[in-house]
Specification:
Rossmann fold, 3-stranded parallel beta sheet, disordered C terminus
Length: 392
């Protein structure tokens, strides 16, 4: 049966939109109708752009301030804490109007503000269709969690367990949502290898990611450290042209702007140095490219980098020496196949991709319950019954 889905994203970097696009592609390929909306556009006029500009400015220029906001609003903790529910309530009228127009069988938030919005409406009984939240973070902060939502789909079993322990309801762990092009083979990898060989004189290329906005502290130092180790530092500067021009002047550094064929580039590199535990990192896991977290951005970036390392899917290098040591251990020629650090980390990363989030979104509609926060019966990909399934 053809179903209708409304996916709620947000233009905060590029990661949430990338997940929304891939979910939409999978659901459409299965014959369903998909509409997408940006939750910031559902806020009163002028407020969405202000939220976007404030967040971007804080992450790029005042990371200490963003870290303080994360600690107050996002980090789990006991006792009364401020949250984003008041902001989400300002978008209720426009979302309900959109639901009436689109007539979805389910609403699918892929951004935490959207999850607060749908959870609140479900709890009030004003949203009659299921809300299935796709949690994109490894470290599940509390703004993702609202007991009104029907199901949370997480990137790891540990993240799903965090959701269940929080009392936010049912959770499952299909793994990250990444386009299939990031799995080998990569058609563009050969072209990238030739380009990188010319640029680096045969030195091993290592990606250094700054996200879509070119955010991060010490990017010059990180790129210089990688280049100084005898590798070619290939820096992903996103859409920050000033950063690209500045880093492009460093010896041993190839600074790139927005890269369309990131899958092919990953297939031609030896490792990724990451600072955010976002979509670039999970795309690397899908590509079998080892990930090293270093100098993470405050807040969700630092929390995610630590959690990825705890799961064994990445390394966390706290110092320059640890970064060089991790790159040595993860080099494609460092150890024999089968028992090396690189092979274990790559296998752990690929094991996260245990299921299909889009299929679970569709299943949640087929097995929908009438009340808010009701989960589909059945079992999660890890074999556990979703929390709340037995309790009804």
């Amino acid at each position: 049966m053809v179903r209708r889905f409304l996916v709620l994203s947000a233009r905060m970097g590029a990661g949430h939109d990338a997940v929304a696009a891939e979910l939409g592609r999978r659901l459409s390929a299965a014959g369903h109708h998909v509409a997408r909306a940006d939750v910031l556009d559902l806020l009163p006029a002028g407020l969405g752009p202000a939220v976007h500009a404030g967040y971007r400015g804080a992450v790029r220029h005042l990371p200490w301030a963003y870290g303080a906001v994360y600690a107050a609003f996002f980090r789990p903790g006991a006792g009364p804490r401020p949250g984003s529910a008041p902001l989400a309530r300002l978008a209720e009228r426009r979302l309900l109007s959109l639901v009436r127009a689109e007539r979805p069988d389910a609403v699918v938030p892929v951004f935490h503000l959207a999850a607060q919005l749908t959870g609140g409406l479900r709890a009030q009984g004003r949203l009659a269709v299921p809300a299935v939240v796709v949690v994109t973070d490894f470290a599940v902060h509390r703004q993702w969690l609202h007991p009104g939502n029907d199901l949370h789909l997480c990137v790891s079993p540990g993240a799903a367990e965090e959701v269940r322990r929080s009392g936010a309801g049912a959770a499952s762990a299909p793994g990250p949502v990444v386009p299939p092009r990031f799995g080998a083979p990569w058609p563009g990898a050969a072209d990238w290898r030739r380009l990188l060989s010319r640029a680096g004189g045969g030195r091993e290329p290592v990606l250094v990611s700054a996200g879509a906005w070119g955010a991060g502290s010490g990017l010059d130092a990180t790129a210089g450290l990688v280049a100084g180790s005898g590798r070619l530092a290939v820096v992903l500067c996103g859409r920050d042209e000033r950063l690209r021009r500045r880093l492009g002047r460093l010896p041993g550094v190839l600074a790139l702007g927005w890269v369309a064929d990131l899958a092919g580039l990953m297939g031609a590199c030896g490792a990724l140095v990451d600072n955010a535990a976002g979509q670039t990192a999970v795309q690397a896991l899908a590509a079998g490219l080892p990930v090293v977290g270093h100098r993470p951005i405050p807040g969700h970036g630092a929390a995610g980098v630590r959690r990825m390392a705890e799961l064994g899917v990445s390394a966390y290098a706290r110092t320059p020496g640890e970064l060089l040591g991790a790159l040595d251990a993860l080099s494609s020629g460092a150890e024999p196949l089968g028992g090396g650090v690189r092979e274990r980390q790559v296998a752990a990363g690929r094991a996260l991709f245990a299921g299909d989030a889009a299929a679970l979104v569709a299943a949640a509609v087929r097995e929908r319950r009438t009340g808010p926060g009701r989960a589909p019966a059945g079992r999660a990909p890890d074999g556990r019954a979703p929390d709340g399934a037995e309790r009804g």
